[in-house]
Design brief:
The longest helix has 25 residues. It is built from 11 helices and 7 strands. Helix 8 links the parallel strand 4 and strand 5. The chain has 341 residues and is an alpha/beta fold. Strands 1-2-3-4-5-6-7 form a 7-stranded parallel β-sheet.
């Protein structure tokens, strides 16, 4: 079977600046990148943890209260209490660098600038006390959509790709299935799968036509560990299928990214992919792990035995918490197992 022809950067990269991410990634992966993120450098390296500033202190969860009890559950939080997320400001600043490097011939024409945005579920679960999540999450959704509007009014659609990152959704699904027992992953809404798909569909509806749309479906990356190891790709396939059914008729979907744990080179992990019908949407498998060329090739071979369509490769999650000295290995392996488009 032919080599995959694309490499996908999930989002974060542990370099010092957007310019370093753009330059080194393009040089290391020639002809393989269709979209290019800014690496979520600086304060953004740890997913959405930097978003705590958005929320009023009255609604913050125990992690932010240093163990102090919640003072009240009666605070009437409104949209005015939710600050702008700054995702638009960060992206617009990086896009200027992207355009400069493209004008200099560093970034090829046709490569899109990628902006990764978290689901409001993930942000609320990380920062907001359980007692307030159901009330505050829709407000954060509204604020994020406002910032997406500014982002898309500034960056031309033909240059832009938006990726929606959904990790906590799978913690909630696995809690509902009984595989996770820790109540920090207890859903704050009923009909969990339906609630997830409704929310993802609403956020996706804010992506303009002409802007590429993709999804990073994730089992978390806390100190390089999932909140629980996926049994297989079954839950990923189920949610991806639901998104295709709901979002696909309104907006083309360019990609789905699925994680592949390092120890899963067995065909059983990939078996649910037999039921995945993405049409023209590309599947990207996060099967590249640093310093593991042989393992990457085994995972690739197992996936190809199950999924007959051409797919792209990536790391299992963003690389923001990966030691910078491991990035050369990731890029080298990614280049070795793929061919230029």
């Amino acid at each position: 079977m032919a080599h995959p022809t694309s490499v996908h950067l999930v989002g974060s990269v542990p370099f010092s600046s957007a310019e370093e991410v753009f330059t080194k990634s393009i040089q290391a992966l020639p002809g393989r990148l269709h979209t290019l993120p800014d690496g979520e450098t600086g304060s953004r390296h740890y997913f959405a943890m930097w978003q705590s500033f958005v929320f009023p202190p009255q609604v913050l969860g125990p992690f932010h209260r240093n163990g102090r009890p919640l003072e009240s559950t009666d605070f009437e939080c409104t949209l005015d209490d939710i600050k702008p997320t700054k995702y638009d400001e960060m992206a617009i600043e990086s896009y200027r660098t992207f355009c400069k490097l493209r004008d200099q011939g560093v970034i090829p024409h046709g490569v899109r600038f990628q902006v990764s945005l978290p689901t409001p579920i993930s942000v609320a679960a990380g920062h907001v006390d359980f007692a307030y999540r159901e009330r505050v999450e829709p407000l954060y959704m509204e604020r994020l959509i406002q910032d997406m509007r500014h982002l898309q009014d500034t960056i031309p659609a033909h240059d832009l790709a938006i990726q929606i990152d959904a990790p906590l959704e799978f913690a909630y699904l696995e809690y509902e299935r009984g595989r996770i027992k820790d109540d920090i992953y207890k859903p704050y809404f009923s009909s969990v799968k339906e609630g997830i798909l409704v929310r993802i569909s609403k956020l996706s509806a804010a992506v303009d036509q002409g802007v590429q749309l993709g999804y990073h479906l994730c089992y978390g990356d806390h100190f390089h560990e999932h909140f629980i190891q996926p049994e297989d790709t079954g839950q990923l396939v189920e949610i991806a299928t639901g998104i295709v059914q709901r979002v696909g008729p309104r907006h083309p979907i360019q990609w789905f990214h699925f994680p592949v744990p390092k120890d899963r080179s067995d065909e059983a992990y990939f078996a649910p992919l037999k039921n995945l019908d993405l049409g023209d949407t590309k599947l990207i498998l996060g099967l590249v792990h640093p310093h593991d060329q042989d393992g990457t090739e085994k995972r690739l071979k197992a996936a190809q035995a199950i999924y007959p369509h051409l797919f792209g490769v990536a790391t299992e999650c963003g690389m923001g918490r990966t030691p910078v000295e491991d990035i050369d290995s990731v890029y080298t392996i990614s280049r070795n197992v793929t061919s230029p488009a």
